[in-house]
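A student in our group prepared the protein record below, which I am reviewing. What it holds is a sequence and that sequence's fold in token form. My question to you is simply how this chain folds and whether the tokens agree. Do not assume that whoever made the record got everything right. I have pasted the whole thing underneath without changing anything:
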Amino acid sequence: MDTIEKQLKVAPKNRRYIIVVTTILLFLFVWSLTALSFENMQESGWSIAASILTGIINPDLELLLSFTSQGVPYLLVETIAIAFLGTIIGAIMAVPLAFLSASNIVPAPVAWLTRLFLIMVRTVPSLVYGLMLIRVTGPGPFAGILTIALVSIGMLSKLFVDAIEDLDIGVLESMTSIGCTTFEKIRYGIIPQLFSMFLSIVIYRFDMNLREASILGLVGAGGIGAPLIFAMNAYRWNEVGSILIGLVILILIVEIYSNKIRGKLVRG
């Protein structure tokens, strides 16, 4: 105990640093509160909120359990398909871009230019991509798939690069010494080590893309979002409750299974 107390006494005092940081955070918090305004809250707003809660408690069971193209199960399957295909396309495109961004694999100028391109890709929100692609392909699931793919490329490439740059370069150096090309180093020296981590990252992104696919439906890019916004605009709160219940159940199931699979991949 005496040794621990001595160590604590000789430890550097960071009180001034803590006070400054705490003051800055409190100032930012108080300043952020000024953006809140309850003046625009009308009486009808509270009644609509109550109607939404009532709709969730008393959902439209016919819509929730219907297996037609207008039913919640079909719309959820369509949403899963959009998220899955978009994630797969984005992951395939992200792998070469990730290797081109890794400074321990390619020359620094190439890595810098590729990273700049990926930053530009990540800058644009998914809804903006959706609105642009709908003008190109028309409304429907195809626009949603392309949007999910574009959104996934930026994040997946960044996470892939972090995994690549954390590799032990001893393997690469030994392969260079025996005359392996860059492609051979990637194919035989890197991908076998990174496959599990890459797959875990892709599953994590798929989990996120399910939510993205639901939101993209609001702008007409397929999935369950479009019926949700139509039901809300028509004040059909029982239908809104059915759709929200379906989404919650879907997200919970995917969350549970994705966490189990990712855990097994990480542990090997």
User: Anything to note?
Assistant: The mean pLDDT is 80.
